[in-house]
Amino acid sequence: MRAAADERWCEKVTVEFRNTGGSPARSGTVTFATHIIGGLGIDWATRESTAPLPAPVDAGAARKKTYTVCVDAWRVPLGMHIETRDVTAVWK
Questions:
Q1: Could you tell me which residues come within 8 angstroms of residue 16 by beta carbon, excluding any fewer than 6 positions away?
Q2: pLDDT tens per residue, range 46-74
Q3: How much is the CA Rg of the chain, to the nearest whole Å?
Q4: Structure pTM?
Q5: Average pLDDT, integer, range 11-18
Q6: For residues 39 and 80, is the Cβ–Cβ distance under 8 A?
Q7: CA quadruple 83, 85, 87, 88: dihedral sign
Q8: How many Cα atoms are found within 13 Å in the side-chain-facing hemisphere of 77?
Q9: What are phi and psi of 11, to 5 degrees?
Q10: Contacts of 91 (CB under 8 A, 6+ apart)
Q11: Could you tell me which of 89, 80, 88 has the C-alpha nearest to residue 10?
Q12: Which one, of 73, 57, 80, 65, lies nearest residue 13 by Cα?
């Protein structure tokens, strides 16, 4: 789920992480692919950023976390916005 943040170069992204394995996930990384979208809807660039996963997550459990995802302000001129379209996670 995505929601606007206070600046046009940031947004709040809520992700639910579900551990379907048989043991607790103790750590990991989430990667966000954030697209910079022009005023006419053209996708100008994609920037990746990472953050730690909300660990530990017990086997069979789920956990939601809201991240504030931002790109450099200069990359998003007036009239443009961002959209985080892809989220991947790696558990350890």
A1: 62, 63, 64
A2: 999 999 999 899 999 999 999 999 999 99
A3: 15
A4: 0.89
A5: 96
A6: yes
A7: negative
A8: 4
A9: -150, 160
A10: 19, 21, 25, 27, 28, 53, 55, 57
A11: 80
A12: 65
Euclidean distance between CA atoms 8 and 11, whole angstroms: 7
Q: CA 11, 86, 39: angle at the middle one, nearest 5?
A: 55
57: which strand partners?
25
Contact residues for 34 (Cβ-Cβ < 8 A; gap 6+) = 11, 46, 47, 48, 49, 69, 71, 82, 83, 84, 85
- Structure confidence by residue, pLDDT tens digits, 17-33: 999 988 999 999 999 99
Residues 2 and 8: beta-carbon distance below 8 Å = no
In 1-92, beta strands by DSSP E: 2-4, 10-18, 28-37, 43-52, 62-70, 81-91
